[in-house]
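Handout, section 4.2: multi-component inputs.
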Amino acid sequence: MTEATLVEAVGLALACAMEDDETVLLLGEDIGVDGGVFRATADLIARFGAGRVMDTPLSESLFAGLAVGLGAQGFRPVVEYQFMGFIYPAIDQILNHAGRLRNRTRGRLTCPLVIRAPFGGGIHAPEHHSESMEALFAHIPGIRVVIPSSPARAYGLLLAAIRDPDPVVFLEPKRIYRALKEDIADDGIAAPLDQCFTLRAGRDMTLVTWGAMVVETLAAAEILAAEGVEAEVIDVATLKPLDMAAILSSVERTGRCVIVHEAPLSGGVGAEIAAGLANRGLVNLLAPVQRVAGYDTVMPLPRLETDYMPTEERILRTARRVLAYA
Amino acid sequence: MTQIASFTIEHTRFLDPKGQATQALPAFAQNREALIDLYKAMVLTRTFDAKAVSLQRTGRLGTYASSLGQEAVPVGTAAAMRAEDVFLPSFREQGGQILRGVRMTEILLYWGGDERGSDFAGPREDFPICIPVGTHAPHAAGVARAFQLRGEARVAVCVFGDGATSRGDVYEAMNFAGVQNLPVVFVVNNNLWAISVPRSRQTAAETLAQKGIAAGIPGMQVDGNDVIAVRHAVGLAIERARAGKGPALVEALTYRLSDHTTADDASRYRDDAEVSARWKEEPISRLRQYLIESETWTKAEEETLIADCAAQVEAAVSEYLATPPLPPTAMFDHLYAVLPTALAEQRAEVEEASES
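Output:
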């Protein structure tokens, strides 16, 4: 057992995967001697060498494309982007190549790669360092989008992502990189992809969220519990493909649902979940599905950052409105 | 002031447009059979292109990009490769693909709208064609990095057009290849036109070859209508890379005698007179002339070759036209290694629709 923060759990998973499988290798800016801007790859270059832990030039489109070439040749590259704000040049590679290479060659060439990037606001970072653009990736066919929300899930889900034979965009909620520690067995056991995690059972309403918003959502659920309302909290974890069955099953029991995400409201993954509930869960709904999300604004610089992000209060306000709906 | 860097770009040509040797031919070209193989591959490519265009015009093929007039670049490039090397073409290098064992039926299937056209039975590790311009240059660097990590004496060979050299991906790939000393060769198939934008408006750089210099890798230019020059220069670059001496950029100067694709009408932006003049430089007649004048190629051999190419292409066309489409559910078959449960419903919908 090792006590680890979320970012340390990422490092443990990377080391474990590299130990188990020599085709796993890391690419990215400053991931070598520097250990990455958030230290996720600290000490890995000393352990595995510069061949497997490679500092790349400042070429964000290149790394994803390199990973496509390495993946087609049987390696399992794990690419680090320093911040989600710098990943966008790579969307060309992810959308036009990684997500379609298996399909367009009928399985002849594949892309077992992982693209890691910290995302989200709340750490008073400079401009371009705080957005939550996961929906951009969740729209892309042929890939997975995975977001952990605790050290243990970061460890298990990253191992699963690396072992998965298809491309995975693995987005790490940097606001909670060091927010809490958990015991990690470091036993190499992966967590399941394509499945939601129920973090708290409840019969009165379902709160659906992912990433750092799990913290505010669980806190809101505790306050509701003190008021006699038992909220079920679901961590979606894999946003693409979406485990709608788990959410439908929960809402079938509770009849009420609030979706919480930091990303802008319109076209967010919350819209997909709400549509899924409207399509297949309407008869079970006792109240309209509501979303608590970031606004459709440009992510503000740090002075207004907290005004943008969903808070425990906003979640509670919306939850109470949904509970009050006759 | 001190000059701290300088460079030169060499241009190589062995055969002029009239098929006259301008200098002693390289060793490989002393072999009659080797030259005839190059000639045959170019004639086959031209025959195939002509047929593909006619299939498109008669509604039996989708949009197609002919390589008319540029056959020497992919053929010379692929001829310089070993079977175990990996080819990463753009979308006008069918001559090289065919030489490497991609079946003409597969190329027709691809442009006819069937993914099976990229499941090459022959060169299993070669990349499918790349339509987003220049985005495959990083893949070539990745493939070369894989060879380097495994200590394999193999080379990745990536071909892109003149327009691609304006893209960041191409520079990023060359820069990385240079800094990591990767076994990769980049070939610019410079046909002087990026759809309607001429080379003169693509960049102020005097040559495209010199774009390698900024990335710290050697750049050279060849007459891309002289298949001997292409085969020679790309061959030297490949063997240099194989020997661990790093990447190179070869600019092959050619000309696109066709429209950009069958969906394009180049007469809207290009003078016919320019095209007519360029016909005098095309690669097949110059090698034929050389072969005839060196008395190694007879009229009878030419006639046999033309008949043979036509027969090969016809056989490929028949096989293509006789290939039924995949069932609609095939769009789910290779989306992921295992179809996620979340997609089962969509697949079932397609299956149901296709059965009714």
